[in-house]
Design brief:
about 110 residues, alpha+beta, Hypothetical protein yfbM fold, 4 helices
């Protein structure tokens, strides 16, 4: 499971652990794989959220990922599982953007 937490907008470095951070959500391996094409595009644009690595996204990178997700959703086709995972991640990104927060992800 990849657990994703909100960070304060002023955070500039990856925290060592999630202590004191608010859980934004989680994504399991199958859901992450179903969105691989979108996450790969994000990584190429400097906004990587890999499954087996801890990650830190600043608000500008979340904006980039959000744009990539929304402009490329058609690449998921009619895969219901992928579309459900897409909706969950979009919601998580939107919540972070509303807060002006960054996101950190810890693979457990």
């Amino acid at each position: 499971m990849l657990d994703i937490y909100y960070t304060d907008p002023s955070t500039t470095d990856m925290p060592d652990d999630p202590s004191g951070l608010e859980l934004a959500g989680s994504i399991d391996l199958d859901a992450h794989r179903s969105l691989a094409v979108l996450f790969d595009k994000g990584s190429l644009a400097g906004a990587g959220l890999k499954y087996f690595e801890d990650s830190f996204l600043q608000p500008a990178q979340i904006t980039t990922l959000m744009k990539i997700f929304t402009t490329n959703v058609s690449e998921l086709g009619g895969n219901r599982g992928a579309l459900d995972a897409f909706a969950a991640m979009r919601s998580l990104f939107e919540a972070a953007l509303v807060r002006g927060a960054g996101l950190v992800a810890f693979c457990d």
